[in-house]
Amino acid sequence: MVKFLRMTLFALLFSITFGVSSLAFGYHLAGFTLFVRWILFFGAAWLVAVWQRWNWFAYIGVAFNLLVAALGLWLLNFSPGWMFAGAIGGLLAFDLTFFWQRVRFIDSDVERRGLESRHLLRISLLAILATTFASLAMLVKRQFTFEWGIVWIVILVLGPILIIYWLRNRS
Q1: Residues contacting 76, CB < 8 A, separation 6+
Q2: Greatest CA span in the chain, whole angstroms?
Q3: Which of 93, 138, 151, 170 is deepest in the core (most CB within 10 A)?
Q4: Cα 171 from Cα 166, distance rounded (Å)
Q5: 3-class DSSP assignment, residue 104
Q6: Can you tell me the distance from the alpha carbon of 26 to that of 40, in angstroms, rounded to the nearest whole number?
């Protein structure tokens, strides 16, 4: 049972880290260093909440990520890519928190494996579509940065490697 949940747990921790880091980097680029510290502190608290299995904290986490992203995007006119990435990370972490809790109680390994792979595929496609939308918004606003290009390169290189690794270890 534990072997199959590793990918979901990894995706959950990565979503929290990526979302919070994206928000912090977006605020850092705009010079709001005080907010960066609070965003990183909150991200660390969310990771501790996952470790302690405080599932209720996911509601606070998604609200925080969405609020900080909305503040940066609409009120402070920050780069849309980093704000969208932060919001997407928070939404994925929220979804994966409750999915991870639910899938642990399925008895059949085959059923659990199938449910996990379909769910991760669905949310991965949604994340790619949302990231593409954010990139298009950055291009339209002429705010596409070198750092955002690096994020895309990392996604394009690590994404297929992780999928191949995961599919090989499933059998």
Answers
A1: 30, 32
A2: 51
A3: 93
A4: 9
A5: coil
A6: 12
pLDDT digits (tens, 9 = 90+) for 66-108: 999 999 988 887 878 888 889 889 988 998 888 887 887 777 7
| Cα separation, 109 vs 73, whole angstroms | 43
Q: Which of 101, 96, 109 is nearest to 53 (CA)?
A: 101
Q: What is the pLDDT of residue 10?
A: 85
10 Å Cβ neighbour count for 64? 22
Give the confidence band of 1 by pLDDT, cuts at 50, 70, 90.
Answer: very low
3-class SS of residue 67: helix
- The predicted pLDDT at position 77 comes to 78
Q: How many CA atoms lie within 13 A of 170 on its CB side?
A: 16
19-62 confidence digits (pLDDT tens): 999 999 999 988 898 999 999 999 999 999 999 989 999 999 99
What is the rounded distance in angstroms from the CA atom of residue 165 to the CA atom of residue 159? 10
CA atoms within 13 A on the CB side of 61: 35
Q: How far apart are CA 171 and CA 169, in angstroms?
A: 6
The letter for the amino acid at 33 is T
